[in-house]
Amino acid sequence: MKTKQLNITHEGLLSNNDLNLASSLLKAGELVAFPTETVYGLGADATNGDAIRKIYHAKGRPSDNPLIAHVGKYEQLKEIVEFVPAYVKKLIHQFSPGPITYILKHNGVCSNEVTAGLDTIAVRIPNHPVALQLLQACQFPVAAPSANLSGKPSPTSAQHVSNDLTGKIPLIINGGKTGVGLESTVLDCTGDVPIVLRYGSITSEMIEKALNITLPSTKPKTDQSPKSPGLKYKHYAPSIPLLLVKGSLKDLENTIFSYKEAGQKVGLLLKDSTTDQLGLKSNYKLGETIDEIAGNLYQGLRSFEQTDYDVIIIESFKEEGLGIAVMDRLTRAASKII
Ligand code: TXA
Ligand code: MG
Prior knowledge:
By secondary structure, this protein is of the alpha/beta class. It contains 12 helices and 14 strands.
């Protein structure tokens, strides 16, 4: 299959012609990769089971891992769920469109393939002008997992999508580098209080503040989490072993040194101040603030694809705010943590 790429206009939107092309492909049951503020999504009509099966096929994704239904506005969200609890209305008011996904009881409008047979559905209103333009043009919800091959880091640029999916999908919309760089916060909203199933840039503290409650302190597990099927799979992993070093700067320096001593070709992913302090060079510049690091992380991991490094060593980051989501992804991606 030939994969076409569309660029956005100077205003950062799709031209009318391109918007028509993208929405008619979706309507015809085809796949379209599009930018969101978190990572690129691989979209298909969520009411069309055959279209959804193409997503699982293109990604090589296990079919028991349900997808997020993306909608362009609250009215479209209400059309696919049984009901919206009062606290979810508050959260939507405060955080949506934005990098947060709500798990709610569904009403059967979306196909079983989207929900993997569960009685709940994940719904999100992404905060990206092109995504909103596309979703609002569609008269149906668009199911979209991250547009990467299953197991690889999520794509934060159209180039990543193209590397993984060229020849497998008809269209990629190039909206440039995504802003957040990590996938949305996933929140189970089927109970009286929400439960964070996947950490993201909308943090637990932000949710607690918005609702004036204390969230149950259940940390999503890295291995088995029956509530969110996707979390049990190996994720975000680069093709070369990733070593996550906790501990002091000295520990990091010693680890790097001992791998080099053993004759290993060592790739480094470090923040700017660490490279300065150690007098070393990071193979990919992660930046300094946690927002920069989150935004650059997947590109950094992917920058080692098709290189001959034996190991990638990455430092750990403070587990607060967005740092919790960064460390969650790194812990899942790491083949070893020391
Ligand atoms: O930022 C994002 O969320 C991106 C962009 C494209 O929107 N999407 C994304 O989708 O990361 P995906 O498929 O890679 O991750 C969806 C996560 C998975 O961990 C999945 O198991 C979980 O949401 N999920 C989906 N439906 C669920 C449900 N009904 N109950 C519990 N977890 C669910
Ligand atoms: Mg994914």
